[in-house]
Structure formats: structure tokens, C-alpha cells
Amino acid sequence: MAEELIRLRADLTDEAPPELGALLDVHLMLARDDALCESALHWIQERRYNAEWALSAQLEVLARQFDDMEDEYLRERKVDLEQVVGRMLSTLAGQESPGMAAMGQGARDFAGADPLVLVAADISPADMLGFRDGVFKGFITDIGGKTSHTAIVARSMDIPAVVGTREASRLIRQDDCVIIDGDAGAVIVNPSPIVLEEYRFRQRQAELERARLSRLRHTRAVTLDGQSVEMLANIELPQDAQGAVEAGAEGVGLFRSEFLFMNRGGQLPAEEEQFEAYKAVVMGMQGRPVTIRTVDVGADKPLERSLGGEGRHDHVLNPALGMRAIRWSLSEPGMFRQQLRAILRASAHGPVRLLVPMVTHLWEIKQVHECLARVRSQLADGQVAIGHVELGIMIEVPAAALILPSLLPWVDFISIGTNDLIQYTLAIDRADESVAHLYDPWHPAVLGLLEQVIRQTRAAGKSVCVCGEMAGDTLFTETLLAMGLRSFSMHPAQIATVKQRILRADTARLASTLGSLLTSEQLAAASAQELH
Ligand code: PEP
Ligand code: MG
């Protein structure tokens, strides 16, 4: 391996940046260092480890020493050591020389070569936000379900991701070539040339299809039998508004405001900062309605420690069933009113709708009304201009779906959060890959609740939207149309595909198949086939 490094060093052309030569020298030095090689030999002789295991064990010992170093520069050299050991392991495995690519990120920057994907045990939704500037072309995690917020943010970044692979971070090595097939939920490591070519072909096809679909951007979503369907966007950050408009969204159906509260080292955004963020979305949507959801922190989106009381949200027994969403807001009325003020103020700049997550009890919505009344009167006293703001609730807890008739008089609109509705109906943690196979949107209980909420809300003359992942998945488009849904909210990248499906649908025909879909599990499966 040392010979290979020497050869690479000698082959460097004059155009190669001088840092690359230096990097190769460092790797050569590390590869010959006794702290690595002699000690690995010791593990082999004393413990009878095989060579690969001995190197990995010694890497762990040295990595801990690097972690303890005070000097940040030296601490970061751990990466070089990991790359050297990675190269040794490849050599031991008889794999072909990976050339420059094996020099890791530094060399890639120099060579401007391969795109990067991130393979990690877990990535928090907050961390995902940090990657929105396009550092990575894909993600793979060991942990997480398809509707976990990490997966949702990856989807909104419109890049391939596979979550819940369990072992990927252990099995995939630095500089492996990987194919991430997000549609199939599959990861292929070091594919054969023929498989790689097949996927390159599929990638080109997908790009062509996307270009073709983008022509539907300004086409209205109207079914074959003349039913208009509203196509809204889900966004996480104010800067997403532009992409929503470009994708042809008629408004924002879900602005997950909690992402403004993350990655802030314990500091909550002040009212003014929130106002500017909401206003930016409202202005960015150029007169189209914007639905701002009040913070939905908790579960897989915890806030930093110092927010909302010392350690208060740490180590909770079951975060999905704990202090989440509106429960958190009502327990922090000062912060809640601050958010309400910022949202109401933004309504002076364009149409705003206020959406409350995870309502379970009637008194929760009554308390929201009280908070709103107080904030409105404060703003009126200060002669602050506000627009007309409608109030809606998310139906994501089965209890709320079941008491919908008593909630409806208190709200202007309903938005169904199927991600959570499925989680709480089927008792499946949506972020837990070990029960991902039980996360079943076709379960008759889920379909029954969905149909009931859509029917009852429409009968009350109020608008109803689905903003969970089901809305953006073409597998469910016809079923939701059959139930009477006429408002869908999804990631901007999904709008064109779903719209195409809607343009080809006949709601009258679909509605006639709904009865059988709802009556039994077998029929549900059969009807699902029939519908598609
Ligand atoms: C949902 O639960 O379906 C939803 C849209 O909200 P979130 O995914 O942010 O929990
Ligand atoms: Mg939810």
C-alpha cells in the first residue's frame, strides 16, 4: 500500500495542487507509523486477531487519542488516519486501488471528482437542514422510518435517501461507490459496471420525465370530470417559498415553523425574527395563501436543552406521546403568544392561515382561541395592522378524528396529518425502522378515519386538506380523490407527478369504488389494486 502511495505521489502532474502531494506524504507517514503497524501486529500476536480486525481495533485506540487532542487541527487528522486504515483494509481485501478517490474529501475537493453521499447511523432533522446547500447528493441512515422528519426533509431537498437500513453505516466504507435507489428503498454498494450503467440509464430517464412533467407547472389540476383540485406545498424554511412557486404551488399548505426554532444553541427566535421569516414566505408566495403551523417541537424534533426550562424535554419516556406540538405551546403561553403575534403581523402582507398541530381535546382549541383573542387585542391596542387570519387544526390523533363534529364549529379549516394519524392509530413509532413494516396507510382503520374526516368536514362546509406524505405519493391520489379530497399539500418536487395523476382521474368513477375499499381488509387490498 505504501508503494501505491509512492506511485501516486510520483504520478502527480504539475497542475496538481501542492496540498495534494503533502496529503499523500502525510498518509504515507501514517501508513508506516509504528503506533499503527506495530500495535496492530501486537493484537495479531497476542490476541490472534486477523489483520483486518487488528487494524480496526488499533484505529479505535488511536481515534480516541485524536479525539482527546486539544489542538483542533491535530484532532481533525483522525480523518486521515481513518482513510489510511480504510485503504489498508481495501488492499487486504484484494480490492483494486481506489486511486485518488481514496484520499477522501480533501482530494475530492482538489480533483473536483465524485459526488458525495452521507452514510450515518442517524441524522437528526435539524442536521439535515444544514445540508440543504447541496453538499451531499444522497443520504443513507441506519435509523428512521419513511415518514420520520429526517426522511421528510431529505424528500423536500429532492435528493435520494434510504433510511432505516440498520447496518449501512457499519457495512459501507469510505470511498465505496454506492447507488441510492430511494424509490425502491435499496442501496447497492460497489455495483458491477452493468448495474451502474442500468442506473445511469434510469437516472437519465428520470431527468427526462421530470423535464416533461415540469411543463405541467402552470396547468390547473382538474380531473377528467371537471373537479378542481388545489395543489399546495409543504415547506420547512422561508427560502423554500421560491421553489414552491416555481413548482406551480397554489399556496403553502404547511409551513413547518419549528425548523426556525432548531440549530440555535438554545436561543428561541424572537418575535421580530419570526415575523421577518413569516413575512418572507408570505411575500415570496406573491398573494397565494400561506398556512403557517405553530411550532411542532418534541418527538423526533426536540429543542435544545435550555429552551423551555432546564432539561425539561430531555430523557422523556416516550417522546411521540409526550410534550409535543400544541401541548408544548400551551405549556409555554408566553412563547406561544409571541409566535401568534408574529404570524398575525405577517398577515398584513398577504393571506395567512394559522394551523395548530396535534390537537386532541376540545379545550386545547378553546385555549388557542383565548390566546389569539388576547394577542389580537394587544395588536389592536398598538394599532398594528393585521389581515384576516383563518384558524385550522391538524387532525393527527385518532381521538380528534373521532370527536371532529365537536371541533368543527371552532375552526375554519382542517388539515389531515396522515404521518401522525397513521402513527397514533396503528401504534407505530414513525421514526422506528424496526416497526416500519407495520406502518400501513391502507389499514382499514386509517382509511376509515380519513374518509370520515374528509366527509364530515366537507358536510360542514369547511375546507379540508391532506398535508401528510400520503398527499404527495401517487399510490394514494385516486383513493384520496375518491374520498372527496380536493386539496393536497406536498413537497414542491412532488406536485407535477401528483397533478398528472389528477388530470387522468375521474372522481365519479373512483367514488363508486370507495365503498368496497372501506369495508374489509381483503377488499381494501383488492380495491387498491383495482384503483391503480
Ligand atoms: C403529519 O403528521 O402528517 C404532518 C404533516 O406533520 P409532521 O410530518 O410535521 O408531523
Ligand atoms: Mg404531524
Short description:
The chain contains 24 helices and 13 strands.
Describe this structure in words.
With 532 residues, the protein is α/β, with parallel strands linked by helices. It folds into two domains: 2-176, 3-Layer(bba) Sandwich (Glucose Oxidase, domain 1), CATH 3.50.30; 223-531, TIM Barrel. The protein is built from 24 helices and 13 strands. It has helices at 2-10, 18-32, 34-47, 51-67, 72-76, 78-92, 104-111, 125-130, 149-156, 168-171, 193-213, 240-246, 271-284, 325-331, 333-346, 362-381, 398-402, 404-407, 418-426, 444-459, 477-482, 495-503, 507-519, 521-531; strands at 117-120, 138-141, 161-162, 178-181, 186-189, 230-235, 252-256, 290-293, 352-356, 389-395, 413-416, 463-466, 487-490. Strands 12-11-10-9-8-7-6-13 form an eight-stranded parallel β-sheet. The protein has a three-stranded parallel β-sheet with strand order 1-2-3, covered by helices on one side. α3 packs across α4 (51-67), α4 (51-67) runs antiparallel to α6 (78-92) and α13 packs parallel to α15. The protein is globular and about 75 Å long. Bound molecules: phosphoenolpyruvate and magnesium ion (MG). Magnesium ion is lined by residues 357, 396, 417, 419-420. The active site is at residues 149, 467. It is found in: Cytoplasm. One of its GO terms (molecular function) is metal ion binding.
